[in-house]
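Researcher: Here's a chain I'd like modeled. Treat it as a single chain, no partners, no ligands.
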Amino acid sequence: MPDMSVNLNSAVAAMPKLRANYDNYTTWKHRMSIALRGHGSYTVICQEKTDPLVLTPELTVKLDQAFSLIAFSLDDELLDRLRSYETARDLWRAIIERFEKPTPLNRMTIIR
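Model: Modeled as a single isolated chain. Structure tokens:
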């Protein structure tokens, strides 16, 4: 069986980076969701915050790799704004919360 991680890494590297101005968020989120599913970490990252994670060594490696996939898909400006998040789960949630705020005024908070 071919090594899917190499193909997945290439696919993510070829993805347009998520830009801080929102213009490609919907497409980025869909593509990143596909990549995380292919990686096998989407379900764990998207669980409710209250769901406890049992961190096995294998899961720790998967989550670290998922963090890298997400972080490398952000443009420099956005990556700088989100640098305080240290886990894939927290980084994913921060992106979703910032980009899916319901009002235009709230959307402006990430631009500043």
